Amino acid sequence: MSARPERWTKSTVYADMWVDPDDDPRDSDGVSPDGELPTLQDYLRSYRLTLLMKCDGLDAAQLATRSVPPSTMSLLGLLRHLAEVERDWRGWVADPAPKLYGPRDADFDGAVADQAVVDAAYADLAREQAETDALLATFPDLGERVGSEGIAVRELWVHRVEEYARHCGHADLLRECIDGRVGQ
């Protein structure tokens, strides 16, 4: 990332936006959802889509491009990391599953410019998200305490939203450094 790319956008309406509002898959028609759980689900869905949008159109080498040394963060690493934490969150409720990628930081360290690694990362993320979503769907009462630590289901939902939101901020900066595409 030594060369500074020129900033760019797909938006024709607002030059500082990622895409035009009418083309943004995160925005839905109508009002926001009613209720706490639908609101949390809507925010999580939006941040998940944001992460995928930040990775869209990049090849394996671009996805594996590291941020500033000594960090090992990359967009591909973020995909792998979020698959790993989705799996970890299920361990807050039930028996922990083994790590997907190995010991600490293997999710980032193993994010190499190989299309098979990229394909596996997307598949792992989709699978782990679906499994965590399915588990949490069995707990509609957000105040219910679960797992050996007695964590409230609400706290788990909020933590998920926070994790994706934080990493979408990282993804904004990573993408802009890779090819100049601005965030939204």
From TrEMBL:
Gene3D superfamilies cross-referenced by the UniProt entry: dinb family like domain
InterPro entries hit by this protein: DinB/YfiT-like, MST-like
Domain of life: Bacteria
One Pfam family matching this protein: MST
Protein name, UniProt field: DinB family protein
